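Field log, afternoon session.

UNIT: design team B
ACTIVITY: writing a sequence onto a fixed backbone
BACKBONE:
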């Protein structure tokens, strides 16, 4: 349950190389963004960010710059 004005749910599969990523989000109304994902997506797919290095890492794969 969320207090956000939710329009619908979004469930999408992405593939990067041999990695399959599942993205579950809320389609929200009157918010800064149309789709709200974030930390649950990162946790489910073992994604980490290094903002100072401009890197994204998926599991133990080499960083994406």
């Amino acid at each position: 349950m969320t207090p956000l004005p939710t329009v619908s749910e979004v469930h999408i599969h992405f593939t990067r190389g041999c990695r399959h990523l599942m993205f579950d989000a809320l389609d929200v109304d009157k918010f800064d963004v149309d789709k709200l994902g974030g930390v649950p997506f990162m946790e489910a797919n073992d994604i980490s960010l290094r903002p100072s290095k401009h890197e994204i890492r998926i599991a133990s794969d080499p960083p994406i710059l």
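LOG NOTE: The mean pLDDT is 83.
NEXT ACTIVITY: expression trials, pending approval
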